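Hey, quick one: can you model this chain's 3D structure?
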Amino acid sequence: MGLRPLAERYADRLPLSRDAQIVSLGEGGTPLLHAPRISARLGAEVFLKWEGANPTGSFKDRGMTVAVSQALTDGARAVVCASTGNTAASAAAYAARAGLEAVILQPEGAVARGKLAQARAVGARVEVRPTFEEALEEAQELEARGTHVLVNSLNRLRVEGQKTAAFEIVEEMGSAPEVLALPYGGGGNLCAYALGFREEGAGTPRLIAAEAANRAGTVASAIRISKPAHADEAQRAVEESGGAILALDDGTIMEAWRLLAREEGVFCEPSSAAGLAALLAEPPGDGRVVCVITGHGLKDPDAVE
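Sure thing. Here's the predicted structure for all 305 residues.
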């Protein structure tokens, strides 16, 4: 029968209404894979939190189940998001599951083909805006009118759902790793991991956040966000952990992307390899390291040469 829905498994740790109508596609419970060849390269015990195994192929499903469940319970008829792709695919799928309309506002030329196909396949209304920032502003305006529920990570329920990945890591490892590395686009997932480890009370890893040096034009489309919505909170979380934010060029990110596929058999989208790219650029030292692989490679098939 598999695991219960994520929002049920962690019901006592999520701010959902007690009568919430849970909207689930079987999210969470993703593998924590040991990476022996990468471990040998880095001189550390490296594990990959494989979030591409979520239902729509990315970590976004963890937060979306919570946000859409509450929206449905509150009587919403429609959800809206601005997205470079993964949020769109997840919002569209969970809205379809709940019987809600989904409006997706995407930045022009910034969404990989696989993600756009996902959103359209499940019936979302997809519209293009010049930039991500303009798309997000319009999405917020729709929420302010009371016609749509915003399901970007500015909706705190998204961050609350995504923190469950930290719970799973501690459950499997027995404590927090010494280092956690992950991509940094809008910063919501980084904040979610920091929150999750803090609530778990099993130690906080040093957070290594990997952003694109050219945020506005990077090949790593999922983190192609010029102005991170959670920049201040993310900066605080990194500093409090004793970690760092590394800006990486596209060549470095793509090298890590190829390494993951060819040495560990993990096919992810380019942005998902940013955390590993940071570890390769600045090795973490010995100890246990978790590298979060945020999305499946089929999200962006055009990246394959």
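One thing worth noting: The chain has two domains: 6-59+157-303, 60-154.
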